[in-house]
Amino acid sequence: MRLKLFRAESGTTTVWSWDEMNYDVLLKIMKRVPLGDRLCVACLVSKTWLSAVLDSMSPPGVINLKRLDCPKFQRMNDRYLVFLKRRLDTMPVDSCSAFYHGETFLQEYKYRYIAKRTPSMQKLIIPRAVRTNFTFILPAMKYWKKLKKVQCPSVLIAQFRRNFTEVETLRLFGAVDDDIATIIRDRCPQLKRLRLDYCALSINALSTILDGHKDLELLDTRHSFRVPDCRILFSDWMSLCLEWNEEEIRRKAAGVKVHLKCARDRCRKCAPRKCNLPLRSCFPDLKPFKSDYRARL
């Protein structure tokens, strides 16, 4: 498809291809086009327009599957995944550096397909809504070994400890037992920022982590709680939260630049906790899973 431009002053006609349009201008135009027209019409014009359509839905270099959670978008999920596949097949392998997962699960082979074409992935964000479910992302983790910023269930780091050697920012949710704490201490030498908010921590977990990371830029332990056995997260066993060894933590965290922590018993979010529902304490916004999405890829 070509555009003819007639210049009255010179009497000449210039023929331009739509692909020659300034990409930033094209991107701004796409953001104003209705979603249905973007995925059903605009993306069929050329590869450049297809890239602009996908970039209008998420920043360049970002695979944003949170789009699949939007009710208005669900009718277009098939087309979005089809065009995402087409783009992954044609772009350089280092074009995508961030992956945002939503609450909608794809089949495992689709994650493997995405990961094979994005080996330079540096940012992985998995929402807390997935809770302790991590099996869906296992096929992709085999290819993502250059991660620098990760938010994921705590059990994932135990399965793929070698993938976290370059991680600088880490946010975990779920239960952090002594084994996971040891992995963070020994296998994350580049770690600068650690968030463990709303986590169930074993008796020695935080102390073990601080033994290897005394100079963190940020440590966030707000609303986390200390338990004798992290396995209570998956059972109905009634247990009491243990008191924090504040003096030991304060001594070991003396080199931490910013340590975010709540007022424990005086905290509005922590005070009502009885630990008889430990899973609810780790995931205060707990809600039913969304069903798996079976679109083609």
UniProtKB/TrEMBL annotation:
- From which domain of life does this come? Eukaryota
Instruction: State the organism named in the record.
Output: Chenopodium quinoa
Designated name of the protein: F-box domain-containing protein
> Highest lineage ranks of the organism?
Eukaryota, Viridiplantae, Streptophyta, Embryophyta, Tracheophyta
List each copy of the F-box domain by range.
Answer: 18-56
**PANTHER family per record:** F-BOX DOMAIN CONTAINING PROTEIN, EXPRESSED
The record, for Gene3D superfamilies, names: Ribonuclease Inhibitor
